[in-house]
Amino acid sequence: MSAVVVALVLTAVVAWPSAASRCGWWSRPADLQPPPARDGVTVEDVADASVLLALALQSGRGLDQALEEVAEVAAPGAAEDLIRVAAALRWGRPMSEAWGYARDVWAPTATAFVVADAVGAPSARVLLDAATTLRETEARRLEQAGGSAAVMLVLPLGLCFLPAFIATAVIPLVAVLVGSQLS
């Protein structure tokens, strides 16, 4: 009987977040949200595109040409942003304003371009650093999300297994010890 109760409680605890979120009673913390859909831009897409932009610029391509060529091979959302930026630059917008047409996830890459443009430095090395920074930041975010998920799992496991442990191990042991002491 006790195993059945434990199984029911465990099932309820595991199923609760999914059922409650469908009903609107509970939602996941922001750091545990799934990544955006494929039409959005992930950090990995931006880091990959930044590396490709750096390589294209190192090979002697112009900025507009590099943006367009990388857009041809980039993920759909990243390609869309790169085409917008290339079009804005072609129309004579300043670098900072052109990168304003891209999504917020492009901030390190945009900063690298804006700083390199303002100083007159080659932007390829700065882009590689921006890509590295993006990947490291995403790795830290995933580590934190994994850590908080582990912490969130402790409570249901404790609520399920601690009473079962007490009922199957501690109480019988105490009963035997008390019975042997009384006789």
From TrEMBL:
<feature type="domain" description="Type II secretion system protein GspF">
    <location>
        <begin position="52"/>
        <end position="168"/>
    </location>
</feature>
<keyword id="KW-1003">Cell membrane</keyword>
<dbReference type="InterPro" id="IPR042094">
    <property type="entry name" value="T2SS_GspF_sf"/>
</dbReference>
<dbReference type="Pfam" id="PF00482">
    <property type="entry name" value="T2SSF"/>
</dbReference>
<dbReference type="InterPro" id="IPR018076">
    <property type="entry name" value="T2SS_GspF_dom"/>
</dbReference>
<dbReference type="GO" id="GO:0005886">
    <property type="term" value="C:plasma membrane"/>
</dbReference>
<feature type="transmembrane region" description="Helical">
    <location>
        <begin position="149"/>
        <end position="178"/>
    </location>
</feature>
<keyword id="KW-0812">Transmembrane</keyword>
<keyword id="KW-1133">Transmembrane helix</keyword>
<keyword id="KW-0472">Membrane</keyword>
<protein>
    <submittedName>
        <fullName>Pilus assembly protein TadC</fullName>
    </submittedName>
</protein>
